Amino acid sequence: QAAADRLLATADLSADPCDDFYQFACGKYIRTTDLEGQKRKATFDETQYQINLDLANYFDSKNVEDLKSNTEKFQKNFLDLCVADGNKDASDPAVRKTKWTDLSEDLNADLGFPLFDVPGIRTDSKDIFTAMGSMERKFTGGPVITTFVTSDYKDSTKNALYINQPPFHLTRDYYVKPQFIDKLTAYAADIRDLLLAYSANMDLKINHKFCVGANTDRDCAQQVAEWVVSTDRSLAMASWDGPELRNYQQQYTPFTSLDALDKNFKQLSLANYVRALLQMDEDADIHQFKVVVSQPSYFVALDGMFDSHHFSLEDYTNYLAIHFLLDFSGEYGIDIPSADRMATRNMKRADTEPKFQGYITRRGQGARKIKRRPFNYKAMADSEADAIRIGCIDTLIDYMPFGPGFTYVKNRDDRNDVRAGIQTQTENIIAQFSVKLTEKCWIVKFGVHKPNFAATNLIRNYLWPEFFGDFKDFTSIDDYNKHFDIVDKPGDR
């Protein structure tokens, strides 16, 4: 009933859906919604805001000791830390310095930053892949490679590790089509601002050997930023386009040995990458699963880039370091000021819109890379305190999707009724689909059995996964989220 009321509240029933379905479906919502100070707003935003607010209120009402599942205890610890950090005065130089220092220490632990005279700790190009694996394991990020684990497409009883091309900061078309040059120009300017902010807050000078001919730090940062965008563009042009990614048969190049995997490349060391990603010993090999290279031609092109020696080891280190800043400065609570206060590109961006979309949101969740559409919670919040709380819930959903989801469903008294209604509706749709197959002559008769078989054997997952259990026994959900025990309790550090 609530969903039906929601739909009716947005519809303009005076419009004829056959003439203008959009006006019929959304006309009333558009007419009654105030967009002042917001770039966009939709029923999705309002619903997600309410869900986040309900979760924030629930955890605010609980002490860690009150919570029975470890999954909820981990969430409570994270939210307390996140809200405490969000309430710090970001304009305080000491607070800002601490945030930048934390970010820099995590960066330098795996890489170094030659652009700022912090020596790189990797000794050769193959060792760079060790850094990539280590950083993806610890920070879920990688500008050159990304991975996920899912069932082996050729043997569903086992899992496989799939190595893929990366999710880029911008839509692939922006890199490869000339009409989007303004997007790349704005992107380069944002990277420049990031480098200048890092320099100022860490009190580090930019090494001008990476920007020959530049007279000022600003010019040098701009030149380096343009080089980063150019490198991104080269990778994007080597990557597979969306339609090409739909054929899983073409994306199945399996390996049962890491040494055999590396023999296919001159400079890439995907073996080092996998070992660091999975914290394996230096010479260890895989035995219980396969490694599958999903886009072989992309990795051949990447190998060619490394083998050409067009970039030095320091260049690669800088490239990874800059992307680390792009991906995680926002996660550390750092806002990047613009060096062009009145620039048109910044005038077009709402104050609450982030400059860089983090890796975790670009990448999406699971094998299907399911993404959540970001919503403008800051503009919708009734107070700054609510904006901080809602933002922390949103971050938690990104990194621990089966935590907040579990808690939200557990606390819905009507969850079983809603599930039953959706199940009935879905079964009715499938049944009607099967009827239509036999009623009409639009499909040849010998072909009817295939869609009928698909409809009959369709895997049905309604509303929440089975490992949520009965919401009384938390063994399965806690086992799934066991690695989140690394989240400190407030005051533990």
TrEMBL record:
Organism per entry? Pristionchus entomophagus
Q: SUPFAM superfamilies in the record, alphabetically?
A: Metalloproteases ('zincins'), catalytic domain (SSF55486)
Give the UniProt family note. Answer: Belongs to the peptidase M13 family.
**PANTHER family xrefs:** NEPRILYSIN, ZINC METALLOPROTEASE FAMILY M13 NEPRILYSIN-RELATED
Q: What is this protein called?
A: Peptidase M13 N-terminal domain-containing protein
Biological process terms from the Gene Ontology for this record are: protein processing
Check the record and name the InterPro entries matching this protein: MetalloPept_cat_dom_sf, Peptidase_M13, Peptidase_M13_dom_2, Peptidase_M13_N
An example of a GO molecular function for this protein is: metalloendopeptidase activity
| One Pfam family cited in the UniProt record for this chain | Peptidase_M13_N
> Where does the Peptidase M13 N-terminal domain start and stop, copy by copy?
17-443
